[in-house]
Specification:
Keywords: DNA-binding. With about 170 residues, the chain is mostly helical. It has two domains: about 110 residues, Orthogonal Bundle (Arc Repressor Mutant, subunit A), CATH 1.10.10.10; about 45 residues. About 70% of the residues lie in helices and about 5% in strands. The chain is built from seven helices and two strands. The protein has a two-stranded antiparallel sheet with strand order 1-2. Strand 1 and strand 2 form a beta hairpin. Helix 3 packs across helix 4.
């Protein structure tokens, strides 16, 4: 089956836009960390631990990153008192990580501030634009995730992170 050149051009434009969005999000995340606190992987760790306690290896699997990335993210979170280590009841040799009360409060405050800032940034978008952008991004993440899972399964049998709650709501 032949793919029309216009379709390939549109896909290339979308890929370029996604790559620019990722770079922009990383740059904003670095600035946001200085102003508001954890972003990127540390923020994802806090959000994951808000849902349930986990071992470091389980966090790495859930977030689709290597264990060394998680290890580097945990040190400042623990030093800041945002997370705590507890012995695993199922395996006395292992540790489970949990969100501290300070971590939960910090996460809630930080998330509310992120939402407020993002809402202000999108003040000139109408409701349909917001909903359509959300649906498109969730669908794009699912397609990219499926492609990554297929590649990972073929080359490395470690599973990628589970779908986000927002993605699960859209597909339900």
């Amino acid at each position: 089956m032949s793919i029309p050149a216009s379709r390939t051009d549109d896909a290339a434009d979308l890929l370029s836009a996604v790559l620019v969005l990722v770079r922009t999000a990383r740059a904003v995340g670095h600035r946001r960390t200085q102003a508001l606190g954890p972003s990127g992987t540390p923020y994802a760790v806090l959000k994951t631990l808000a849902a349930c306690d986990a071992r470091a290896g389980d966090l790495a699997t859930a977030l689709g990153v290597s264990p060394s990335v998680i290890s580097r993210a945990l040190v400042p979170l623990e030093q800041a008192g945002l997370i705590e280590r507890r012995h695993d009841a199922d395996d006395a040799r292992a540790w489970r990580l949990t969100l501290s009360d300070l971590g939960r409060q910090t996460l809630e405050e930080q998330h509310a501030e992120y939402v407020r800032l993002f809402t202000e940034s999108l003040s000139d978008w109408d409701d349909d634009e917001l909903r359509n952008a959300t649906k498109a991004l969730i669908r794009l993440e699912q397609v990219i995730g499926e492609q990554a899972d297929s590649f990972r399964t073929a080359h490395n049998p470690i599973p990628l992170a589970a779908p986000t709650p927002a993605a699960q709501e859209v597909t339900a």
